[in-house]
Design goal:
Number of strands: 2
Shape: globular
Helix content: over 70%
Structural class: mainly alpha
Order of helices and strands: HHHEEHHHHHHH
Radius of gyration: 21 Å
Amino acid sequence: MKNLSSAFFSALSFTGEVLLLLFPVIAILAVLYFFQKNANGYLLKAFNKGTVIFAGIIGTPVHEAGHILMCLIFGHKVKSFKLIDFKAPGGTLGYVNHSFNSKNYYQRAGNFFIGLAPILSAALVVWLLSSYIPFFTGIFSHAEVKIGNNLYSAAAWKDFFVLLFSHTINSVGTIGQLLFNNFRPEYILYIFILCSISLHFSPSPSDFKNSWYGFITIGIIFLLAVFLLELIGAKSFNYKSLTISGIIKVINFLAGMLFPSLLALILSYLISLPVYLIREKKMLSPAG
């Protein structure tokens, strides 16, 4: 058994390593949010809110369903919800109102997962599509890039992100080739479903705020758990390897969502540009 100071500094060191590995997660989340914000912004500038609601007729319910599922898992009380609201004021297309016991650490930690739940629910639907529909299986195989175990090499991360964005762009090109060379009517439906999910799966600013509240709780619990494991010398339980492996899976998982998000951004721009150009007589700029 380690002494208290040695166990504490070991726990602090490993917690720091884990936090360092969260930067790629944050970077990918920021890009996903940028894609979604601008894709919806293009549609709003060229058309109206009705177009955005129609485009999110699948994505918005998937988004809100993710929140509801995580609320149930973490014991939050769902007061009211709407999977999609066609008459909602402002920019809210759906919502989930929930409450929790602030003295319950499990429920407090749940805020982190509830806030980020739309990414999980959207990815689940996309995974199901790519598992059972050959059209998506072929497309996503071109977008697949995975980071290896060399996590502390700047060159490895550089190569990962360069390949990731290169493969993402190539996958969009593969979609174009399929549509022109082997077009089938159902492809339009498949692409609409994919884009609808991609336009609404990124957490909103309020979701990120709630997640931050839960993240602090998780961070404290994680630090204490590692401290206890270090204190008792739990060598048979390779928790460090399991933790790093889990983070790698999260990074690879988020990376796979860049392709449908970029596709939605490009299609939103191409659809909106002619209308905006004719009406405003100027080019369509990114959302502010």
